[in-house]
Amino acid sequence: MLTIITSSFFKIPFKPNNLNPRFALLFNSPMASSTKITVEYAKSGRSACKKCDEKIPAKSVRLGLVSKHPQGFDQTKWHHLDCFPFSSDFVSSVENVTGFSLLESKDKETLEKLINKEIPALQKVSDADSDKIDRKQKETCAQEDSEHELSKQKRLKLSATEEEPVLEIAFSICDATDTYKDATLLPKWRAFQTLIYLEQDEGLHASSKIAAFDFDGCLANTSVRRVGADAWSLMYPSIPAKLQSLYFDGYKLVIFTNESNIERWKKSRQAAVDSKIGRLEQFIKVVGVPIQVFIACGLSQIKPEDPFRKPKTGMWNIMKQQFNSGVPIDMDESFFVGDAAGRKGDHSDADIRFAQAIGLKFYVPEEIFGKEN
Fold this sequence. Notes:
Blueprint: H1 24-28, E1 37-41, E2 61-68, E3 74-79, E4 97-98, H2 105-123, H3 127-158, E5 179-180, E6 183-184, E7 189-192, E8 195-198, E9 210-213, E10 220-221, E11 233-234, H4 239-248, E12 252-258, H5 261-264, H6 269-287, E13 292-296, H7 314-322, E14 335-337, H8 350-358, E15 361-363, H9 365-369
Parallel strand pairs: 1-4, 9-12, 9-14, 12-13, 14-15
Antiparallel strand pairs: 1-2, 2-3, 5-6, 7-8, 8-13, 10-11
Domain PARP-type: 37-115
Pfam families: PNK3P, zf-PARP
Main location: nucleus
């Protein structure tokens, strides 16, 4: 299920010693207040309610309270609908709940009734009682953080053995080559079956938090009619600053992109390879932070289906099993951003289906990066 957040969701403390000076103004500019509540359908049954400590069933509606972690990043505490600590300070109507418009009609009605019942009652509380409630909530939150720290670490470890079926691919570094069929790859790029990947970008680190992105139409404005390493532009002007903020907040940045032209253009395969890889290398240079890249070259209309082409999860599984140094991935903190969300005008729904198959939170690019340039 698609969950949308405002672009300020990933705002972290400004680190002037690490960021490119030309992006400093972006971090000091006024921004809209952070989203306080988000709603979505639980991707799996792994998350636990922060009030009752019971598991939230997969595909059931869960409400998340977004707050600032002491280390500077935003964190989401998930609750059952009946357990959520409503407060008129951060929600006055369903319009304040991110993702509400994406719920099914019956769930919209349930949540709207709940909010309309809870908020008027809260607003009648006197100022003195409000202060007491506020202090009590702070004490409760502090207690919850302590009580659930061990369970959070346990869930983090369990993410390495998810309940969802995992596509097993017998990968070996020895089987990787520096050519894709008859096309030569640039240094540091390798090929395995129908997958091309960036072997190791300097400064790249393993992490439990994965910030993953589609490339064409999400990070880069490209056209199938134009060929060449220079034939692209930033899809959104805020992209460099956003990716830098995520990187310095401990996220590992990964690009998962489909590129069937590499396989389709048999007589011009080298040009297709040079064009795609060249654009990706230039993009990484522009944003100024290391990124891991996986390119699925398989065709969409073949049987059996290519295991790496989105929405198949082969690229994600290879990254998780072979290229994250054994670090288990925190699925509650990780997410995927793509433009193929099955909306009117979208070329497909491959990106959202890719995220759903993995169990990742999914966001459309305009909600992360803002308006196009």
